[in-house]
């Protein structure tokens, strides 16, 4: 039974890949990993990631008045200064920094950037409650009501043709401590991480290198929900926790149109989409209701799936939950 008046509404979107409008690359830029990402952008991605799609998604999301917004990385394409400059106007329209939580993705760390450049400039959206300095630290924790948002950074510079991520031993140890402390306080713990943590979801050259270590922490400490992006696909799966399964939800890119292939009958549509998570405390724990809203061929956003589950649900319960329309 749901305890009335105790629902937290969290919007999740990811992989904006803010469309590049007039960015000019210098020879210095081109003499780096940016060259290959730029070619990819010019030949393919610019036809898929469209600014008006992102605008309509934001409009749809803000109409639903979520309590908080989580953005799980890949805001930029090439980690260009001009892209970071433009990101502020975009982030500010989502809401005040205390109501919007952001973590970086691999595209936001495409090349080596100084300690005050790149995603470090997003400190206002990545600042934990107990870290009042401008310094960025991961994992950071933001508690909002009964919900704790835990921001993990997987963005590291990688070799050519790789989009791997890494959490690293220091951050993993801190994550273990965070989960224990927040769990002891009875909070609903949501991990925000760019790369997926399951097996076989993405090729090794795009995968999270230490995903097994993250899963080991979850198996010991648990969490109520994990949210990610990176794959540009809707995904719902679970990993082991100490008292049942930990649900994991991935969301497609927020700026994409469906490809011609995806529009064919029987194919999965990975068009722009965002998820609304409604988290309610019940007499026995937590109930999470998920509503997926996707771009339609007519250019509007409409519900394409809904399902609900109880946190720490036994395996059968999680698998049996109604996932109609998802993905
Ligand atoms: Fe992405
Ligand atoms: Fe990514």
Give a structural overview.
With 327 residues, the protein is an alpha/beta fold. The chain has one domain (15-20, 28-51, 69-272, 316-320): Purple Acid Phosphatase, chain A, domain 2, CATH 3.60.21. 24% of the residues lie in helices and 26% in strands. It is built from seven helices and twelve strands. The strands form two sheets. It has a six-stranded mixed beta sheet with strand order 3-2-1-10-11-12. Strands 4-5-6-7-9-8 form a six-stranded mixed beta sheet, covered by helices on one side. Helix 5 packs parallel to helix 6 (211-221). The longest helix is centred in the middle third of the chain and has 16 residues, at 169-184. The chain is globular and about 60 Å long. The mean pLDDT is 86. The structure holds fe (ii) ion (FE2) (2 copies). One fe (ii) ion binds at residues 74, 105-107, 163, 194, 230. One fe (ii) ion is lined by residues 15, 17, 74, 105, 107, 230, 232.
Quick structural gist:
The chain has 327 residues and is an alpha/beta fold.
What is the SS-derived class?
alpha/beta
> In total, how many beta strands?
12
Order of helices and strands: EHHHEHEEEHEHEEEEEEH
Separate helix tally: 7
- Give the CATH level 1 class: Alpha Beta
**Strand content bin:** 25-35%
Give the CATH superfamily. Metallo-dependent phosphatases
List all distinct small molecules, including ions and cofactors, that are bound in this structure: fe (ii) ion
Number of domains: 1
| CATH T-level topology | Purple Acid Phosphatase, chain A, domain 2
Name the shape in a single word.
globular
Mean pLDDT across the residues is 86
Instruction: Using the 3D structure, state the CATH architecture.
Output: 4-Layer Sandwich
Question: Uncertain runs with pLDDT below 50, 5 residues or more?
Answer: none
Integer-rounded radius of gyration: 19 Å
Distance separating the two termini: 27 Å
